[in-house]
Design goal:
2 domains; mainly beta; 24 strands; single chain; Rossmann fold; 2 helices; eight-stranded mixed beta sheet; UDP N-Acetylglucosamine Acyltransferase, domain 1; globular; six-stranded parallel beta sheet; 11% helix
Length: 202
């Protein structure tokens, strides 16, 4: 298994792979980086070269993770990294490239997309949908039947009540309580959460 990104986030993913007794782990980064523990940091193979083994992108910024996924789309098979201490329903699905940290709970019929991050001790209840490149931060709680659009970042400790729809490329502030739907490209903070800005696209 190869992780791309020698950062603090990469350290967490390294320990996920160790928790699963992954037999061979390599670390890639475009920049010159010091080793992470006993793992040397290598430069990626040249563009167009097939990636040996499975690749997981260990970058926390959703937009950057998407760019890297697109860069390796035709040359890599993307793996998953799910901590041995995470508890996922057998009726939940998890897309390629997604990482699930320690202490996470995911309940029945939840669908998690590609290249998502479900961070430490997050709780995702039944029938939720996380589209691609979503990041659910530590200790965030999604009640049943919540939908989160592509690229959205839900901050640490946020709580989202049942049935809420959150658009794509949104930011939900840490500790926010979301009781109303949130439109695309919005930033929402507070308790209850209120939209404070919407990004202009194009």
């Amino acid at each position: 298994m190869i992780i791309y990104g020698a950062s603090g986030h990469g350290k967490v993913i390294l320990e996920i792979l160790e928790s699963n007794n992954e037999p061979e782990i390599r670390v890639w980064d475009d920049a010159d980086k010091a080793p992470i523990w006993e793992y040397e940091v290598e430069k990626p193979l040249p563009a167009g070269t097939s990636v040996p083994g499975e690749l997981v992108i260990s970058i926390g910024v959703n937009s950057t993770r998407k760019k890297v996924a697109e860069r390796f789309r035709d040359t890599a098979k993307f793996g998953r990294a799910i901590h041995a201490d995470a508890l996922l329903s057998k009726r939940a699905t998890v897309g390629e490239g997604t990482v699930v940290m320690a202490g996470v709970r995911v309940n029945a019929d939840t669908r998690i997309g590609k290249h998502c991050i479900v961070n430490t001790c997050a709780s995702i209840d039944h029938d939720c949908v996380l589209e691609d490149y979503v990041h659910i931060s530590p200790n965030a709680t999604l009640s049943g039947d919540v939908q989160v659009g592509e690229g959205t970042h839900v901050g640490s400790g946020a709580a989202i009540i049942q049935g809420i729809r959150i658009g794509k490329w949104c930011t939900i502030g840490a500790g926010a309580t979301v009781i109303n739907d949130i439109p695309d490209y919005a930033t929402a903070v507070g308790c209850p959460a209120k939209v404070i800005k919407i990004k202009t696209i194009g």
